[in-house]
Specification:
The protein has 192 residues and is an alpha+beta fold. The protein contains four helices and eight strands. It has a domain of 95 residues: C2 domain (Immunoglobulin-like, Sandwich), CATH 2.60.40. A four-stranded antiparallel beta sheet has the order 1-2-3-6, with no helix packed on it. A four-stranded antiparallel beta sheet has the order 5-4-7-8, with no helix packed on it. A hairpin with a 2-residue loop joins strand 2 and strand 3.
Amino acid sequence: MERPNAKYNLSNLDDKNHLDKKENEEKLHFYYNRERRLENAPDSVKNLYKEQKKNQFSLLGPLLADKPRRMLFILIIVMCAGILVLSITGYFDTSYTLEGNRIDVTAAGFEGTTIVVLKKTAKNTGAYSGSVDIAVTPIVKSGEDQYPVFTHRVFFTYETEEIYRFVVPFDAEELVMLLQNEKNTLQMRFKP
């Protein structure tokens, strides 16, 4: 059986018919000329073929490239500055102070009760140490049943940081806590 293309001479075995590379290039005629084609092209196409200089890395360049990006960048900077100012002035600080002790209170509801965590941090060496009476009650609206007041006593020591945990026998949306020592009383509201 014979190949389908056996009658066609696919390669030229005669080396004499091959031309040198230079002669081969001289005989080739190119119909495509980029310069002639670009003469009538619009400026946007001409700009594509111009040699582009490589951009150096810039951190702010892309952020400030056009007006919407500049406005967004300025908005982000203003927001960060505002948050920084508010945090320095203590707007986000939920802690209280009782005679040189910083008091942080958190709470979590669990099966009809509330677990209260009181964290005491001494600000300086002269901070109060001794007994502190605690009273906790839920905030009730007019016409609702009155809850009893839960009382508890803790002792602040000379430790820099102490954590006290206790359970109050009611679950409410918002609680009021009073802390009292011999000289001062501190009232705070918190949500479990």
